[in-house]
Amino acid sequence: AHFLPCSVICRRPPLCKPLSTCDGVPAGLADADTIFALSSGHGRCGVAVVRVSGPESATALRRMAGLTHSLPPPRTALLRSITDAQAKEVLDRGLVLWFPAPHSFTGEDSVEFHIHGGPAVITAVLQALGSVPGMRPAEAGEFTRRAFQAGKLGLTEVEGLGDLIHAETEAQRRQALRQMSGELGRLYQDWSHKLKRCLAHVEAFIDFSEDELIEDGVLNQVDRSVCNLQAEMERHLKDERKGERLRSGVQVVIAGATNAGKSSLLNTLCQRPAAIVSPIAGTTRDVVETALDIGGFPVLLSDTAGLRDSSDLVEREGVRRARERVEQADLTLVVVDSAHLPTDAQQAAAFLQGHLRSVLATEEQCLLVLNKTDLLPDDQRQKLDRELRQVSELPPVCLISCHTDEGLQDFLTVLHSNVKTLCGDPLSGAPTLTQARHRAHLQQCVAALAQYQRYRDTDLALAAEGVRLALTSLGRITGRVGAEEILDIIFKDFCIGK
């Protein structure tokens, strides 16, 4: 499960084709080193998997598993004694699997040794593999990099694999699995194919229109395609960053006046004493963060200093940081001490509206959390709850008591609903953007298509350059675009030189 960030994986120019192949093994990999590494987690476990990939994989399999003649059938588990050929010592007894090229994760000849997961066994097997000529330990992410170079995975699939390995919640797992399956990559590849066709037609018109080898109306078709693609990409970008938010976690900030019960709410949600709770005002002076799983969605919950004017320099810095976090928040939980509310519902609503203006810089998404309701008489609490829910100028209101847990379940239901809305359903609709780099390249792509439309009637060469820049931006996301493909489309569509 080795993973390398995409910025390190793609060391070739952004406009590149998959490496050419010979006998099923990509050129450039056929003469590469054979690499090996522990592919399962470190530490004691029942079974550990050691992966080998490269041209000497078959040699390693024969030496380590004592196979003198034929290799085992592909993808078939074979129980063998794992031996150190140099020391002539049995290291373990486990399963071996043979994956001949190109039908393996990396596209190369590969072997997997499924051994017992004790540290001594793993170390002995890795040392024995290191003694085989032509083999070396794998670098971080090198298996995945070879899979990319062999055309087994695109960059978006590689990123999906990395997200799947690091997924901590159910929604993150679903999104990562969808991206790793290639759905997002196929969307970008489809756009790339359409852009290549547009560019091929424009360049063919520039080069060959005077020879009357190009059909009439070619540029009109390009105009329609470019317009439709630009509209599709703009809709794709207007996803409110749901995919990125789901991948990194929803920023939920607890804010409010001092002694409203913010730290108590944090501890209640965490179910542990993550923050100090004290009746002394201004106890929390820095931001306290904790990661939570709210109904399968990742949340980064932050408790902040109470908002008030203070002469204490440390507390003033805490208040500044609190306001900064509120501005960055996806969702703000504005906590209010319900015992300080006016008894009249209308006056209470006016008080809460003024309090929201003092806490929120703009009209950010928020929930009003009225804490310490156990201090109110039952009739006053019920009347307050009933009448405040009818005030349309207020955000959703939740009455809770962190001391008795009253109302907590209803609050969690509302919180989960808001977090789910912010992240969206990872399995429904078109695949969403999950990486900031995808967004940046797509924005460049849209700007380049706008260049085509700007110069379409005045300078066709500059217009074509806009399409080329758009194709380059998409190529940086997928990792696969080649100039040869443009030529293929020109000759295929127009049969020039027939």
Describe the protein's architecture and organization:
InterPro entries: G_TrmE (IPR031168), GTP-bd (IPR006073), GTP-bd_TrmE_N (IPR018948), GTPase_MnmE (IPR004520), MnmE_dom2 (IPR027368), MnmE_helical (IPR025867), P-loop_NTPase (IPR027417), Small_GTP-bd (IPR005225). It is found in: Mitochondrion. It comes from Seriola lalandi dorsalis. One of its GO terms (molecular function) is GTPase activity. Residues 249-420 form the TrmE-type G domain. This protein is flat. Strands 5-6-7-4-3-8 form a six-stranded mixed β-sheet. It has a six-stranded mixed β-sheet with strand order 10-11-9-12-13-14, sandwiched between helices. The model is unreliable at 1-23 and 494-498 (pLDDT under 50). Among the domains are: 34-150, Gyrase A, domain 2 (2-Layer Sandwich); 245-307 and 315-423, Rossmann fold. With 498 residues, it is α/β, with parallel strands linked by helices. It contains 17 helices and 14 strands. Helix 13 links the parallel strand 13 and strand 14.
List keywords for this structure.
498 residues; Gyrase A, domain 2; 17% strand; disordered N terminus; six-stranded mixed sheet; 17 helices; alpha/beta; flat; Rossmann fold
